[in-house]
Design a protein that fits this description.
single chain, alpha/beta, 3 domains, 5-stranded parallel beta sheet, 11 helices, globular
């Protein structure tokens, strides 16, 4: 039986369910799932000149790119469903990295200090050369909607856990705003371990804990600096990315913790 194509208004979940049912008897569940995911990926790649793609930066790791891509206003407009948007971002990320891995002048220094670089180091320790390691690691992606099949070579990309590096966010005028709540939900939906760090006194904790409870953030991931700048707390917790609206906090982080990404809240919404 021919593999059905996605209709223009059909979302990922509806199409995959319909497609698998249509070809299940011929291919079985596992192969049918792979084929249908491939068809969905092909649909997203058709008429590529008309499709907006947010280009990854060369040294950008997977988690940072996914956060930036899924939060982009154009991506939100083109893919209102978080699952569809994340799937497209993942395909974009992998396509670029597979291209870069073939360039002769694309050296190991480009990936040092990134999640991709860490993965490459582990693969090389197993005996693979750099390009083999790159190809393996560039295919390990995060996906919230099941396996993706890259149409170029029918490579099945299985779901893996989101990078476990924790992210922290300020509370006042950041997490407790409407945009902040939306950002919190997006991070949590993506599998990010979120901490709330606030300069509030512990005695003024009720509103902070209420927000944490609303989003299912455990109280041991809520931290009060009691008026002190947050960078020391960030260092103690091993946070690698902090989101804040206070320029003094961002400046202090950059000066004292150069390896930590200090994101200005207003630029993420």
């Amino acid at each position: 039986m021919p593999v059905p194509s996605p209709s223009p208004k059909e979302n990922y979940e509806v199409y995959i369910s319909r497609c698998i049912k249509a070809i299940y008897d011929e291919y079985g569940h596992e192969q049918a799932t792979a084929i249908c995911n491939s068809q969905w990926g092909n649909k997203n790649m058709k008429n590529s000149e008309e499709i907006f793609v947010l280009k990854p930066k060369k040294a950008e790791n997977r988690g940072t790119y996914l956060s930036r891509c899924s939060a982009h206003s154009r991506m939100k407009a083109d893919y209102p469903s978080m699952k569809d948007r994340m799937g497209f971002c993942l395909n974009s990320f992998n396509s670029y990295y597979k291209y870069w891995s073939k360039l002769d002048n694309y050296g190991e220094a480009e990936t040092e200090g990134t999640a991709l670089g860490d993965c490459i180091a582990k693969e090389k320790a197993k005996g693979f050369d750099y390009k083999e390691s790159y190809a393996h690691c560039a295919s390990k992606v995060v996906v919230t909607a099941g396996p993706i099949v890259l149409a170029e070579d029918n490579l099945i990309v299985e779901p893996v856990a989101m990078e476990d590096t924790p992210v922290s966010i300020d509370f006042d005028d950041t997490a407790n705003t409407p945009n902040g709540r939306e950002l919190l939900q997006k991070l949590i939906d993506s599998g990010v371990m979120v901490h709330i760090i606030t300069r509030r006194q512990q005695s003024a904790s009720k509103a902070v804990y209420d927000l944490a409870d609303e989003f299912g953030i455990p109280h041991d991931r809520v931290h009060f600096t009691n008026g002190k700048l947050k960078w020391e707390m960030i260092k103690a917790l091993g946070i690698k990315k902090h989101i804040d609206n206070n320029p003094d906090e961002l400046k202090a982080i950059k000066e004292n913790l150069p390896d930590v990404i200090a994101e200005k809240f207003e630029e993420m919404i």
